[in-house]
Design a protein that fits this description.
This protein has eight helices and no strands. It is mainly alpha-helical and 213 residues long. The chain has a single domain, classed as de novo design (two linked rop proteins) (Up-down Bundle), CATH 1.20.1440.
Length: 213
């Protein structure tokens, strides 16, 4: 058997990096679909509030849970239009990436790095909005909270893929350590901790109002 033949036979089957993460890309897909639905509902509510600031939205439950109070704040239209419109733009892109990756499309490193940076901005923005709702506005919007949750899961999923595929160009020792942690479920634990902190904050400040205690 010639060296050329041996090389061909022993070469790994060409499989894109993305297709090695079907579970993670599926999580991205499901999260982004849920985020898109939430953004659509918030966009409809924003239009209703623009027509009538006193509109009775379905999620105006009490003093603590009030989409209307949050929607009428300046923070809800930071760029001059409802923030929910950003979700209508961003979520379909994430859905497309996830579906394409599950279908075997290979994205170049620069694209995955760019997606990570852009989604980090969205991730930071979502938590800034939660901070504003919690500490400044004094009311919570269930649909906004849902977007905070889905943004977190998509961001962490994308980060997991980029680290495991070494798209970020990290030092080899750091790359290896992070990969070991991710395979042990460190990212899942991190998400659980984040959600537990959010739930705890909501319970401490609004628990008596929400549960009528």
């Amino acid at each position: 058997m010639s060296a050329t033949t041996l090389d061909v036979e022993e070469a790994p089957v060409p499989l894109t990096a993305q297709r090695r993460h079907p579970k993670t890309f599926t999580e991205m897909l499901v999260s982004s679909i849920i985020g898109l639905i939430a953004s659509l509902v918030l966009s409809i509510d924003a239009i209703a509030l623009a027509a009538d600031p006193n509109a009775d939205l379905s999620c105006n439950i009490n003093a603590a849970i009030s989409c209307g109070k949050v929607g009428l704040s300046w923070q809800a239209s930071l760029l001059g239009f409802p923030n929910a419109f950003l979700g209508l733009i961003a979520e379909p892109v994430v859905i497309t990436i996830a579906v394409a990756a599950l279908g075997g499309v290979r994205f170049p490193r620069w694209f995955m790095n760019s997606a990570q940076v852009v989604y980090f901005i969205g991730f930071a923005f979502a938590f800034w909005l939660f901070y504003q709702a919690y500490f400044v506005i004094g009311a919570l919007c269930p649909w906004c909270l849902l977007i905070t949750i889905t943004t977190t899961t998509v961001f962490v999923s994308l980060l997991r893929i980029n680290i495991l595929d070494n798209n970020l160009g990290l030092p080899s020792k750091l790359q290896a350590s992070l990969a070991v942690g991710l395979r042990a479920g460190a990212d899942t634990m991190g998400v659980i901790i984040i959600f537990a902190i959010l739930a705890g904050m909501i319970f401490v400040k609004y628990g008596s109002i929400i549960f009528g205690g």
